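Title: Request for sanity check on Glutathione-dependent peroxiredoxin prediction

Description:
We are preparing a figure and want to confirm that the structure record we downloaded matches what your pipeline produces today. Could someone re-run it with the sequence below and paste the raw C-alpha cells into this thread? We only need the C-alpha cell string, no images.
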Amino acid sequence: MSIQIGDTIPNVELRVMGKEGPEAVQTADLFAGKKVVLFAVPGAFTPGCSMTHLPGFVVKADEIKAKGVDSIICTAVNDVFVMDAWGKDQNADEIIMLADGIGEFASAMGLDQDLSGIQFGKRSQRYAMIVNDGKIELLNIDEKGIDKSSAETVLAAL
C-alpha cells in the first residue's frame, strides 16, 4: 500500500553529492521543519524525465519557492553519480538531486514499481508531493504521462 496524504515521510538514508563527494542524508532531516516539493521519476536521463519533468521544475523553481517552499527535491532509483550528472546536465542548481540507489525510499513509500520487463528493474513511480514538516499534504501519482506530477500542477496547488 502506498503512502497517503497525512502520512509522515519514512526516514531512509539516501545520498546526495556534496563538495567532497557522496554524502549520506536522512530523509527525516530533509523534511523536518520545512515545506518541500518532492517529485520522483522512473529514471535519470530517460526521455520524459529529461525533456519534460525535471526541466519543468528547473524553469519553475523560483515561482515554486516564492510560494513558501524551502526545498525542491528530485528523486530516482539511480546512484548518486548519475543523479549529480543529470542535475548538472539539466542546470538543476535549485533542486536537490536525491539518489535512491537501491530503491529503498521508493519501496518504503509504497511507490515503487517493477520495470524488469523493459530491463529497468525496480524503479520509482512518477509522482509529486507537497510535504510540510514531514507530513504529506498533496500526493499526485501519474499512471501515464506527467500531467499530475508536473511543475505546473504542483505550482497551481501551492
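Thanks, this matches our download. The radius of gyration is 14 Å.
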